[in-house]
């Protein structure tokens, strides 16, 4: 006796067949073409398109298109990933949300990304595609020339698209690890983010940056002074979904409390003596974009409460005004201090700390990036030579060894300074060790010392590094070393370490 197969079961069987077929594909192009074909046929739509993000997350590229039963020639059309272009696609990408429109209205929606057709496009479904780490890699779009509710296909097609993304990554790792990926790399290239370095810590940093580019979370950058926190903040802005808007910088340690408050929130005429006109604050200047608050650990407690309200409610009240207004600002904060310890000591608000540290990123010190030191040094030397309108300097082998053996407690900022000074001193076209003003390594000349003296020298160096890392905070340094503070003080006295040394 014949039993008719229920429609949902038929769809499930067809979906499983598509998964099996795509799993057998051995090339990236076949996977992309198979995905758009499957999406169109499973949904019964006349059009399916696949857009993928580039490595910098700044552009969407049309990588595959299926229209009216045929795979279209690859056009490699691309458009920016911010809100300046085709609003529907960017909304779906930047908000990381499925977009379903039963009735497309050309007077309301920008649909220039859809191909010309004899019949107008009436319905659309667009969904973000996620990789194994739940990062957005691109968009899958289907469109119909009949008014339809396509929302029901979002779940199954999202899983199918995610499977294809995972297969593409697998093919990249197994077959062509050195070839540029069709999708955004998990470790984006340094040039893509404006940063330099290919060491393991920097590759981890690029991976962390990639996770927040299209997510509106607050970011807290931590790390030692001179590691490049402002550069990372600018990379998050320039490669993220707010890149077409303003990037505003304020160092919280550079202004007294009352001046910092008026600078951040603005003021109205007559708010205080000397306020002879209305003044726009930095939150308003950064509306729609990013506000980078450097040295956030130095912000006074009273201001921390006002900043918390902006983060929670998105509202700003200028000084001298009784009215609030809304702003849409992404906060990227930075500090070299141990904020968690400041919270425990009552010098930083706990609720603000958790708001700012939704996504903490720690920048590696230069001493942990040995292989990047020479790359950075050459880069700074070339830029300094170009500024002085000189030919690029040559590097003596002894100079390279001299640099690579130095710990650079001032990190990249110190390296940049000593290289620029060396280029100024260099007159023969070759950079020599004598051109670099590096503090001598106290561990170098230990001949004639007994074992105890050598061990004390090593211990002294270790304690100094830890104290400098914590900006002289003995409690923090003792905690990092796993010592009681009293023991640390005793060892400092015994090893003749004074605050001046730190």
List descriptors.
single chain, 502 residues, alpha/beta, Beta-Lactamase, Rossmann fold, Helicase, Ruva Protein, domain 3, 4 domains, seven-stranded antiparallel beta sheet, five-stranded parallel beta sheet, 18 helices, disordered N terminus
Strand fraction band?
Answer: 5-15%
What's the β-strand tally? Answer: 16
- Please work out how many helical segments DSSP would assign: 18
Question: What's the number of structural domains?
Answer: 4
Largest sheet: 7 strands, antiparallel
What CATH architecture of the largest domain do you see? 3-Layer(aba) Sandwich
Under CATH, the topology of the largest domain is which? Rossmann fold
- Secondary structure class reads alpha/beta
Share of helical residues: 40-55%
Query: How confident is the prediction overall: mean pLDDT?
Result: 83
Low-confidence stretches: 1-5, 176-192
N- to C-terminal distance: 89 Å
CATH class of the largest domain: Alpha Beta
Overall geometry comes to globular
How big is the Rg? 28 Å
Determine the CATH superfamily of the largest domain: P-loop containing nucleotide triphosphate hydrolases
3D structure, described in words:
The chain has 4 domains: 7-175, 2-Layer Sandwich (Beta-Lactamase), CATH 3.30.450; 190-362, Rossmann fold; 366-435, Helicase, Ruva Protein, domain 3 (Orthogonal Bundle), CATH 1.10.8; 451-494, Orthogonal Bundle (Arc Repressor Mutant, subunit A), CATH 1.10.10. The protein contains 18 helices and 16 strands. It has helices at 7-23, 28-43, 87-95, 154-175, 190-193, 200-212, 229-238, 257-265, 282-285, 301-313, 339-344, 350-356, 370-387, 397-404, 411-425, 451-469, 474-481, 485-494; strands at 47-53, 59-67, 70-71, 78-80, 99-101, 123-130, 136-144, 219-222, 247-251, 290-294, 315-316, 325-326, 330-335, 359-362, 394-395, 430-431. The strands form 4 sheets. Strands 1, 2, 3, 4, 5, 6 and 7 form a 7-stranded antiparallel beta sheet that branches. A 5-stranded parallel beta sheet has the order 9-10-13-8-14. A two-stranded antiparallel ribbon has the order 11-12. A hairpin with a 2-residue loop joins strand 2 (59-67) and strand 3 (70-71). Helix 1 (7-23) packs antiparallel against helix 2, helix 1 runs parallel beside helix 4 (154-175) and helix 10 (301-313) packs across helix 12. The protein starts with 6 loop residues before the first helix and ends in an 8-residue tail after the last helix. The model is unreliable at 1-5 and 176-192 (pLDDT under 50).
């Amino acid at each position: 006796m014949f039993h008719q197969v229920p429609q949902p079961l038929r769809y499930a069987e067809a979906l499983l067949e598509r998964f099996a077929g795509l799993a057998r594909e051995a090339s990236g192009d076949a996977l992309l073409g198979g995905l758009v074909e499957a999406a169109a046929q499973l949904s019964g739509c006349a059009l399916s398109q696949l857009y993928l993000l580039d490595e910098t997350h700044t552009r969407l590229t049309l990588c595959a298109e299926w229209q009216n039963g045929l795979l279209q020639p690859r056009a490699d059309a691309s458009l920016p990933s911010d809100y300046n272009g085709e609003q529907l696609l960017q909304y779906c990408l930047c908000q990381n949300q499925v977009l379903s429109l039963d009735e497309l209205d050309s007077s309301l929606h920008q649909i220039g990304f859809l191909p010309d057709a004899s019949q107008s496009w009436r319905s659309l479904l667009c969904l973000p595609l996620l990789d194994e780490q739940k990062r957005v890699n691109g968009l899958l779009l289907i469109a119909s020339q009949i008014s339809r509710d396509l929302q029901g296909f979002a779940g199954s097609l999202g899983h199918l698209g995610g499977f294809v993304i995972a297969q593409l990554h697998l093919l990249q790792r197994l077959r062509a690890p050195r070839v540029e990926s069709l999708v955004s790399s998990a470790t984006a290239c340094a040039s893509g983010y404006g940063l330099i370095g290919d060491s393991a810590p920097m590759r981890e940093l690029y991976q962390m940056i990639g996770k927040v580019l299209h997510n509106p979370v607050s970011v807290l950058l931590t790390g030692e002074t001179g590691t490049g926190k402002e550069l990372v903040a600018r990379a998050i802005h320039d490669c993220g979904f707010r890149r077409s808007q303003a990037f505003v910088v304020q160092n919280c340690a550079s202004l007294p409390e009352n001046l910092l408050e008026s600078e951040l929130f603005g003021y109205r005429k007559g708010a205080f003596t000397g306020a002879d006109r209305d003044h726009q604050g930095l939150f308003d200047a950064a509306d729609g974009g990013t506000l980078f608050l450097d040295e956030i650990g130095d912000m006074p407690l009273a201001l921390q409460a006002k900043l918390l309200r902006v983060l929670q409610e998105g509202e700003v009240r200028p000084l001298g005004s009784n009215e609030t207004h809304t702003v849409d600002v992404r906060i990227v904060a930075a500090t070299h201090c141990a904020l968690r310890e400041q919270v425990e000591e009552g010098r930083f608000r706990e609720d603000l700390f958790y708001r700012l540290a939704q996504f903490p990123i720690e920048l590696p010190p230069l001493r942990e990036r040995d292989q990047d030191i020479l790359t950075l040094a050459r880069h700074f030397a070339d830029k300094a030579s170009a500024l002085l309108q000189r030919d690029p300097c040559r590097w003596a082998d002894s100079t390279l060894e001299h640099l690579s053996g130095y710990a650079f407690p001032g990190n990249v900022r110190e390296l940049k300074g000593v290289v620029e000074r060396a280029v100024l001193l260099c007159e023969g076209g070759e950079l020599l060790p004598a051109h670099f003003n590096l503090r001598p390594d106290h561990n170098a000349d230990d001949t004639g010392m007994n074992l105890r003296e050598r061990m004390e020298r090593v211990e002294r160096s270790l304690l100094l590094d830890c104290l400098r890392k914590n900006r002289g905070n003995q409690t923090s340094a003792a905690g990092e070393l796993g010592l009681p503070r009293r023991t640390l003080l005793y060892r400092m006295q015994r090893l003749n370490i004074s605050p001046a040394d730190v």
